[in-house]
Design a protein that fits this description.
Elements: E1 10-14, H1 18-30, E2 34-38, H2 41-50, E3 57-61, H3 69-78, E4 87-91, H4 100-104, E5 109-112, H5 118-131
Parallel strand pairs: 1-2, 1-3, 3-4, 4-5
C-alpha cells in the first residue's frame, strides 16, 4: 500500500536573534514547512555538510556569530550539492545596493527585515522554491 503522505519541505534558517528566529521558525511551520534553525554561522555550515542536509531553501541572516552570512553564503555556493538550493539573505541594512555583493556571490534574494513581514519572507521563499533558483550556476 502506497502512502500519500508527503514530507514537508525543509527550510534551513540561520538567524542569531532569538526573537526573530522564533518568529520565522513559527511562520515557516505555519506555512507547512519543516524548519531547522541554527543561530551560528560556523555551526550552520558544519550541520549542512556533516549531515548531507540539502534543504529546499536556506535563509541567512548576515550578522552572525563565528562566521558572517556573506562568508557562509560563499562557502555554501562552493559546494555543487547546494547549487539548486535558493538562498535568501535577511538583513537590517537598508542602504541602497548593499545587497549587490550577496547577489553576486550567489544569493537569490536580499530582503530587508524591517521592510518585510514574516509572511513576505515566506512568500519569497515559496516562490523561489516553486520556480527554482533565480540564477542557475554558470548562467
Amino acid at each position: 500500500m502506497e502512502s500519500d503522505i508527503v514530507a514537508p519541505l525543509k527550510i534551513f534558517l540561520v538567524e542569531d536573534d532569538p526573537y526573530l528566529g522564533r518568529v520565522y521558525e513559527r511562520a515557516f511551520k505555519f506555512a507547512g514547512y519543516d524548519v531547522e534553525w541554527v543561530a551560528d554561522g560556523k555551526l550552520a555550515l558544519e550541520r549542512l555538510i556533516a549531515r548531507d542536509l540539502v534543504p529546499a531553501a536556506i535563509v541567512l541572516d548576515i550578522l552572525l556569530p563565528s562566521m558572517n552570512g556573506y562568508d557562509l553564503l560563499r562557502e555554501i555556493r562552493k559546494n555543487e550539492r547546494y547549487a539548486p538550493v535558493p538562498i535568501i539573505m535577511l538583513t537590517n541594512s537598508f542602504v541602497e545596493h548593499d545587497g549587490d555583493p550577496y547577489l553576486a556571490a550567489g544569493a537569490d534574494a536580499y530582503l530587508i527585515k524591517i521592510d518585510n513581514q514574516s509572511k513576505d519572507v515566506i512568500q519569497k521563499v515559496t516562490d523561489l522554491i516553486n520556480k527554482g533558483r533565480a540564477k542557475a550556476p554558470g548562467a
